[in-house]
Amino acid sequence: MTVSELNNWIEYYSEEPWGSVVSGKRHALTASIIANVAQSLSSKRQRPFKLKDFEIGCASRNQTSCSKNSSWQEVKSTLDALCKKRG
Questions:
Q1: How many CA atoms lie within 13 A of 6 on its CB side?
Q2: What percent of the chain has pLDDT over 90?
Q3: Residue 60 to residue 39: CA distance in whole angstroms
Q4: Does residue 28 contact residue 54 with C-beta atoms inside 8 Å?
């Protein structure tokens, strides 16, 4: 790869990042939107969900890369805590 090609990839990444952390944030955004719409239709309104309510693993720690995937036990623990917190 030439220096010019590398610079093009760096520029492209700055405009449209990719990877597991970015993907996780995009999925968390979608989940928070769906949860807020569903909550707005219920009679029991609470504070709006935030993006951080749905970030799991590396994305929730604001890391730029993941060294490992979250285990199902970590995901379950996070979701259990969220459910307890939300009532």
A1: 3
A2: 17
A3: 23
A4: yes
DSSP assignment, residue 35? H
Cα–Cα distance measured from residue 31 to residue 27, given in angstroms and rounded to the nearest whole number: 6
Listed by start position, the domains of the chain span 20-86
pLDDT digits (tens, 9 = 90+) for 36-79: 888 888 777 788 888 888 887 655 555 544 545 567 777 778 77
Q: Which helix (H) or strand (E) holds 21?
A: helix 20-41
Instruction: Tell me which amino acid residue 59 is.
Output: A
Q: What are phi and psi of 22, to 5 degrees?
A: -65, -40
The rounded distance, in Å, linking the Cα atoms of 10 and 48 is: 36
* Structure tokens given for 46: 């609470």
Residues 82 and 31: their CA atoms lie apart, in Å, by: 13
Q: What pTM, to 2 d.p., does this model score? A: 0.51
